[in-house]
Amino acid sequence: MSTVNYSQFPLMRFVHWGPILSIIIYKCVTLTTLYFTEIWWPCYGSLGGFLNNTILLTLFFISFTCYLKCVIVGPGYLPLKWKPDLEEDQQYLQFCRICDGYKAPRVHHCHKCNRCVLRMDHHCPWLNTCVGHANHPYFVIFIIVSIIASIQSSILLLKTLVLVLAQYGHQILIYFPLNLTLLWITVFGLALCLTFTLSLLLYIQMKYVLKNSTTIEDWIIGKAISRREQDQSLPPFIFPYNLGRINNIKEFFAKGDGIHWKVRDECNVYDLTIEQLEQKLIKESWKKPMQVIKEYNGRWFPLVFGLCVCCQIPWTDEARMPLAVGDLVQVTRFHKYWMYGHKNLPDGSRLRGWFPKQCVTLFTKKDN
């Protein structure tokens, strides 16, 4: 089945549940807040009401514009069949078989986008694309402005409830039938959820921005530190892109090519990629070949494997991999009830994904 080339048709990213649901939720919260506020604080009745609506609509416009730029601009992709300028530098880089080229420093292949992404942070299903070098600043600005707008919406909706509760036994100022009550509960809950989740996301993102790092690079740093704790003979690992908080912020918003990056004076351009290669070798040595003994159809909630498997699924948008009895799977990650791995297909490609742990057993030479 052919996949959509989002780099050539970026508007096709909106044909997905993530962007559709995001736009519906955001517009619902904004318009409903304006509706309730207009009842008791009309924009034509006072300067305060006019300014309130203006601020809320301005915040919505800024955040929605940043959201659209995140989706349309995309993360920025490494050119297919990319190679470093110097042939001897290829030994320090990973090779991507799908893109048929080497991965530049800070580049990672996204199996959802099916391309190598420049300075990839993570794949966001709400954007239906990755957050990377090109759209990461828009993403952070979107989060900041959305939090402010969500807080304003929450306060205005709460003020509406206070006025409704205060009017009992007095002159009715706000008519609140059942359908409006349900709408208020829904939208107020959405506004609070947006405030809480986006605030948590902003904390995580700012932590990476101040270190000039990404979510993926933070994992690599953690593994590098762990390796040196276990093996004291290894030289200390210094993250090469941490230039100090002020310079890190400048680098984050800088309009570079996404391939060449400034590094610390005591570091080499390929320090991070060399560490990745070493970690990959360790990961390859940990791979366990498993043979499929139970068929799995790829469903997210496979009831046939029991309630525990369905209730403790991996909370990620990574694919689920259908299995047939006799398949050989290379397992690279595992949870209590689920495993992640890949199997080779007849055409030479690989199929990756999660599957229930009950489906497989350790492969031995006797099984061959």
Automatic annotation (TrEMBL):
InterPro entries: Palmitoyltrfase_DHHC, PFA4/ZDH16/20/ERF2-like, SH3-like_dom_sf. Its EC number is 2.3.1.225. It is found in: Membrane. Residues 92-219 form the Palmitoyltransferase DHHC domain. The keyword Acyltransferase applies. It is a multi-pass membrane protein. The chain crosses the membrane at residues 20-43, 55-78, 138-166, 178-204. GO terms for molecular function: protein-cysteine S-palmitoyltransferase activity. It catalyses: L-cysteinyl-[protein] + hexadecanoyl-CoA = S-hexadecanoyl-L-cysteinyl-[protein] + CoA. Keywords: Acyltransferase, Membrane, Transferase, Transmembrane, Transmembrane helix. One of its GO terms (cellular component) is membrane. The DHHC domain is required for palmitoyltransferase activity. PANTHER family: PALMITOYLTRANSFERASE ZDHHC16. Belongs to the DHHC palmitoyltransferase family. This is Palmitoyltransferase. It comes from Cinara cedri.
